[in-house]
Amino acid sequence: MERRIKLKTLNEHITCEICRGYFIDATTVTECLHTFCKSCLVKHLEENNTCPTCENVIHQSHPLQYISFDRTMQDIVYKLVPNLMDNEMQREREFYKSRNLPCPKDMPQVHDSDDKANEQAHQEADYHRQDEQVNVCLECISDKLRNLKRRFIRCSSQITITHLKKFLAKKVLNGIDRYKDIDILCNDELLGKDHTLKFVYVTRWRFKDPPLRLQYRPRIDL
């Protein structure tokens, strides 16, 4: 039996919180999985580095590298909302026509072997290879969590404590979604989720020898 659902019951899941319209070029923040129109999100990130919905820091210096086009979501929106794709395409053509420019979506797509190689290289690029690197030792201080097999890691100074929590959750809690169940400390002081390793090193480890020693434990609600 076919069940009909009113579109308005789904609107909160397929509309952008910035412009309040249906997703156009749906783009998702890879850190928290919140989705927005691409143009809305890019404009927001020109002056901010946080997610417009949850306000978590996406990345201290390169937030645009942590968003990606969500084709599945966009396909769903186009299937659910009548004429949205056709209307948007028409508006886009009129926009470029008014400026005497060809519409990119009407231009033939050329993909030679070099283009594919460059695209693959771009996708596989390590965006942090030019960042200052920090040597870190992660030590467990609770018998309720297991020790890492490899306590020593080397990573970008720009990653945040939240990134480390997700890494630890995947390793010791068998699920990245449980990262909020972990506390990370330095010198017995609880670290904020948005602190970068650079900030921690400068403020709490400046006059000590490397590696930066951090401790982890199950979260304690204060």
TrEMBL record:
GO BP annotation list: regulation of transcription by RNA polymerase II
CDD domains the record matches: RAWUL_PCGF3, RING-HC_PCGF3
Keywords of this entry: Metal-binding, Nucleus, Repressor, Transcription, Transcription regulation, Zinc, Zinc-finger
Superkingdom: Eukaryota
Pfam families from the UniProt entry: RAWUL (PF16207), zf-C3HC4_2 (PF13923)
Ranges of residues in domain RING-type: 16-55
Principal cellular location given in the protein's record: nucleus
Molecular function per GO: zinc ion binding
Gene3D superfamilies: Phosphatidylinositol 3-kinase Catalytic Subunit, Chain A, domain 1, Zinc/RING finger domain, C3HC4 (zinc finger)
One term under GO cellular component: PRC1 complex
Subcellular location: Nucleus
PANTHER family in the record: POLYCOMB GROUP RING FINGER PROTEIN
Name of the protein: Polycomb group RING finger protein 3
Upper classification of the organism: Eukaryota, Metazoa, Ecdysozoa, Arthropoda, Hexapoda
